[in-house]
Design goal:
324 residues; alpha/beta; Rossmann fold; eight-stranded mixed β-sheet; four-stranded parallel β-sheet; 8 helices; 16 strands; 25% helix; binds asparagine; asparaginase; Asparaginase_C; Asp/glu_Ase-like_sf; asparaginase activity
């Protein structure tokens, strides 16, 4: 018998459509009515940590969730399932991946259709997440995201479609397992990862997307002592329009860490081009190239590294290394 703790945080999985078809959170979480179909094999304990749409989730709330899961590790629990809104699910899942010791299986899930919509995917995703969390193979795989019968590593998964139930994808690398009729199957293991057991979180780590003809304005606006870090979603393999360079240099001169990913959906950022604003120059300036993560994940990684009090060198290594 496995003991699984289910922590609800809100999102569409905990919402219902009203008479006019608008999807709204209610005073009651419909998931509280869920009756387990696992019999004596899996003992479920359920807790409503929050009941929030996921655009209301903040790093402070991610930390509160991490601290609740830390406690669960001492409560004789075999695994944890977190239900969460899908809009920021990948950020919370990756935050947990970076900050929790890799001891308990932790699986994050959500839904694209609310509880009373036809074809609602909430209960199915909840059940497959519970199945995954109770699988002996789920341990040591980092935090997992289970949606639509696929198992993804929290490190790389991203929401790719506004409404489709097959929205969660892992560009470049693919899912690491699936939930099939006869159970959970993994076909990849996790590469090494660093755990940052932080106690507080820093704010003011910003994410800025590059575009053709971009000027210095957005970078100038955040060149403040209160800024703790910046992630740039750069062009292509990792290049920036020349007009942004003085403002990026100013941030670096202020000892504000600047990390860079590509705004491309697939592939990794690298210092390939040696023209003005190309990756070679950006790297020489001290911009940290972050491999394999998208912008929102790189922001979480930078935020966790800064919150852990890393030195500039440690932070650069932590953010630049794909498998830390
Ligand atoms: N499908 C969802 O859960 C989307 C919702 N807006 C949320 O993230 O809370």
């Amino acid at each position: 018998m496995k003991k699984i703790l289910v922590l609800h945080t809100g999102g569409t999985i905990a919402m219902s459509a009203d008479a006019s078809g608008n999807v709204v959170p209610g005073a009651e979480n419909p998931l509280d009515q869920y009756q387990s179909s696992f019999g004596a094999d899996i003992q479920l304990e359920t807790e409503d940590v929050f009941n929030l749409p996921s655009p209301h989730i903040t790093p402070e709330r991610m930390l509160a969730l991490k601290q609740r899961i830390d406690k669960a590790a001492h409560e004789g629990v075999d695994g944890v399932v977190v239900t969460h809104g899908t809009d920021t699910l990948e950020e919370t899942a990756y935050f947990l991946d970076l900050t929790l010791p890799n001891e308990l299986a932790v699986v994050v899930t959500g839904a694209m259709r609310s509880a009373n919509e036809i074809g609602s995917d909430g209960l199915h995703n909840l059940e497959t997440a519970i199945q995954t969390a109770s699988s002996p193979d789920a341990a040591d795989k980092g935090v997992l995201v289970v949606m639509n019968d696929e198992i993804h590593s929290a490190r790389y998964v991203t929401k790719t479609h506004t409404t489709n139930v097959a929205t969660f994808r892992t560009p470049t690398f693919g899912p690491i397992g699936l939930v099939a009729n006869h159970g959970v199957v993994f076909f990849e293991s996790l590469l090494r990862s660093t755990v940052c057991p932080i106690q507080t979180v820093t704010d003011n780590v910003f994410l800025i997307k590059a575009y053709a003809g971009m000027g210095p304005e957005l970078f100038e606006a955040i060149a403040q002592p209160s800024t703790h870090g910046v992630v740039i979603e750069a062009l292509g393999a990792g290049n920036m329009p020349p007009a942004t360079l003085p403002a990026i240099q100013k941030l670096l001169d202020m000892n504000i860490p600047v990390a860079l990913v590509s705004r491309c959906f697939n592939g990794i950022a690298q210092d390939v081009y040696a023209y003005e604003g190309g990756g070679v120059q950006l790297k020489q300036m001290g911009v940290i190239f972050c491999q394999g993560l998208n912008g929102q994940k790189a922001r979480i990684k930078l935020l966790v590294g800064v919150s852990a009090g890393m030195s500039a060198d440690e932070l650069a290594r932590f953010v630049a290394t794909a498998n830390s």
